[in-house]
Fold this sequence. Notes:
mainly alpha; Alpha-lytic protease prodomain-like; Alpha-Beta Plaits; 10 helices; 3 strands
Amino acid sequence: MAVSVAGALLVLAGKVVAYALTGSAAILSDAGESVTHVLATGFAAFSLWYAAEPPDPGHPYGHGKIAYLAAGAQGAMILLAAGGILYAAGRSFIEGPALRELGTGLFITAGVAALNGALGYYLVRVGRRTGSLVLVANGEDVRTDMWTSAGVLTGVGLVWFTGEAWLDPLVATVVALNILWTAYGLLRRAVAGLMEKAHPGTTERIVEVLDEALDDGRIDGFHQVRHRRVENTLWIDCHLLFPDAMPVAEAHRRTTHVEEALEARFPDRDVNITAHLEPAAHERAHPEGHREPTDPLGDQWRTGTWKSGRAGERGRRT
């Protein structure tokens, strides 16, 4: 993140100089986005440090969810930047732009666009490799800044070659709309993470492993399958059924095999599994008045809706 912060400050300085030289609303819009990027990068750096803190009594599941707050904060800042750009473009349309030294401004803008492109590609690649939403969000923010600069470069270049000054606020407006789309994407992902939205592909892979254990007789059934992901950590909960008379030690041994199979199915994740062991006749074994929590998969695991290679009744040996 130190590289990202240093790069963001350097890019911002270049854009401020370019705007001071040209008076271009389009370049101002580019600089405005960089201001929010510097603030967002600082928050992202803090969230990466905080997310790496080990679990403690107050946060037994760790601190990783701050990544979603960081992504949401970046989205909100980008949204504010887009609003400011639209305001500046509107004023420029009404009052008319007063442009100067466009050649120098174009040269500086081209330089910062190239720097942002390289930095954004690096951050996204590292973030995807490590499973860090913070780095991916920061990298996408940087790449958005690059495309913003590229759009500004094209627009101001047209103004320079054609002399049509009205193109300057028009380019600023187009840039702002592109920034709004990026903000929407970041906010949507942040909300999905905070709401612990399940990924269908992950659910299918989990059910596939449990189906395999069911087929080879290691378990008699399963239900209450849940998962949630925080950064690179995947948490899996499930209830596993065993023969009524099976010793707890044997059921535990089989459960360990299932857990190892689940971990192997997600080699790129830090997998934490909590399995609740139950007798096959668990519905009769529960005391009177006991109420099972709602199964997150509903009846899908019973009817074979999940595409895990099996059809018919799922989750119980027949």
